[in-house]
Amino acid sequence: MAVSEQAVRAALAQVIDPDTRRDLVSGKAVRAVRVAGDTIAVDIELGYPARSQFDSMQARVEAALAAAGIAGAQVSVTSRIASHAVQRGVKLIPGVRNIIAVASGKGGVGKSTTAVNLALALAAEGANVGMLDADIYGPSIPTMLGVSGRPESLAQNTMEPLVGHGIQANSIGFIIPSSDSPMVWRGPMVTQALEQLLTQTRWRDLDYLVVDLPPGTGDIQLTLSQRVPVTGAVIVTTPQDIALLDARKGLRMFQKVNIPILGLVENMSMHVCSNCGHAEPIFGSGGGQKMATDYEVELLGQLPLDIRIREQADAGKPSVVAEPGGAVAAAYRAIARRVAVKIADLDRDMTSRFPNIVVQNT
Question: What does pTM read for this prediction?
Fold first, then answer.
């Protein structure tokens, strides 16, 4: 009996993508279905990087088709990442499709560690990723990526990004004379430095640029929201009441400037003793979920208070590259896929599809 395209699509509608939590048909992940006699080919295209999930997705599709009596189909699973809309009146940065701001209300919550592992996790899933260290007063990304040196300038008023673990990166930390040189700058100088780092770096075909912001809601955050095309923001906090209080202020700031909140990451959720294995929520519990519920945003994931996360970041090999098969790396990759899914659900940037229309008097 001949198989119809409708039968194939009906079977695909039974396959749930665990990352988007939608079936492949309603999630618009079915790029093509080709039926030619006994030859059946199905192309699945995900709108987010998920290289680690390709084999399992292919197996799910094949199992669903087999359950519907459709055997021998050729199944292809790929990803394609598009540019998405940003604040009104702000243009995209050349070579950058999407910008993710990673922020916190206060320092000491593991924001930079989360940002660098998020970037590395996106790259591990197959995306082209860059990092901008926007913490002008306290740059830490050079240390965490294990990169040193100064950016080259191959053209006037430009900088080439340095590369660490496959991530393109730029930071004021690459430019200052030494790691202990203080940045004794007023606000306007800081915001100018941020804009130059962002716009004068020659980013190369990035799917995502992860921006590690300083804590708080000051000059840099305001500059970012007004002049930088931010696709969405990730808020990092701990379960501690004081941290949550400040995190709420950071979240509200992004909401006021119409930057989408991609979600919340709760860091240091649980401490597990390395000697006896006893688990204890030393910073409290349930705070991140309550905040996510209060503001109707997603709790993207919870990470433990683990000495190895700190040691690996300090050594220039964050958890995602130091222990790629470990539980912590798996948690970061799951968070990265959810962030990418949230971005894929946003409106796409359509400005490049329309020509510029110029009206002249003749």
Answer: 0.90
